Amino acid sequence: MLIHPQFDPIAFSLGPLSVRWYGLMYLVSFVLFVALGRVHARRRPELGWNAQAIDDLLFYGVLGVIIGGRLGEVIFFQPGYYLANPGEILAVWKGGMSFHGGFLGVLVAMLVYGRKHGKGFWQVTDFIAPLVPTGLAAGRIGNFINGELWGRPMDGDWAWGMVFPWVDALPRHPSQLYQAAGEGLLLFVILWLYAAKPRPMRAVSAVFLIGYGSLRFMAEFFRTPDPGIFGTLTLGISTAQWLCLPMIALGAGLLIHIRAGKPAQS
């Protein structure tokens, strides 16, 4: 049995400025997005992306992640808390960023980017899909360092069971690390390899939707469910699982349309 290391959430301080691990993980995710984006652009030059375009994508993506992620947490998962504590809405350095909200925020940001720069929506999302999972992995590591989003109690005595002392003395699944490995590293490998060769428009986006939705749905069985707008559990599944179902359905629908030879609507 393991004990959570109870890391100091502050990585280092520069005078009055404190830099938190959670913020550093976001910085890592943005650096990886740019670095991998440039590699992806070089290996697929026919896609028509360059370093400047990737930098611009990052700017739009950062806005989408931060604004959408925070609003998603407020609306989807903890509306009661933030209604009672509205001053906490802007305290993003404390954690509390919803993937599903950030996902919607990024979609809006990519739509705006595409219209401004003359690129189709699916052209943009197909390019960025393989670049996203490493950022998700970094974010989950940030959750683990912060000691938040802990797992459900383990059924049995497992060697990697982890006690989160501020919660209780029960060994729990280190679900943050499960998610970093699944939605992060595994999904990255799948998408990076899949996107290495020419694919029909929307196909890479579809694989991302199905892959993330499925992996997150499974991971939720090991994670203590968030309260959410639907309650902690509705019909036995969590709010996050409910939000994953439309992603999986949309991804499957896109693949069906592709197989049927229907053109993309950008």
TrEMBL record:
PROSITE patterns: LGT. Pfam families: LGT. GO terms for cellular component: plasma membrane. Its EC number is 2.5.1.145. It is found in: Cell membrane. InterPro entries: Lgt. It is a multi-pass membrane protein. Pathway: Protein modification; lipoprotein biosynthesis (diacylglyceryl transfer). GO terms for molecular function: phosphatidylglycerol-prolipoprotein diacylglyceryl transferase activity. It comes from the Bacteria. The chain crosses the membrane at residues 20-37, 57-77, 97-115, 127-145, 177-196, 203-219, 239-258. Keywords: Cell membrane, Lipoprotein, Membrane, Transferase, Transmembrane, Transmembrane helix. A 1,2-diacyl-sn-glycero-3-phospho-(1'-sn-glycerol) binds at residue 140. PANTHER family: PHOSPHATIDYLGLYCEROL--PROLIPOPROTEIN DIACYLGLYCERYL TRANSFERASE (PTHR30589:SF0), PROLIPOPROTEIN DIACYLGLYCERYL TRANSFERASE (PTHR30589). This is Phosphatidylglycerol--prolipoprotein diacylglyceryl transferase. It comes from Parazoarcus communis.
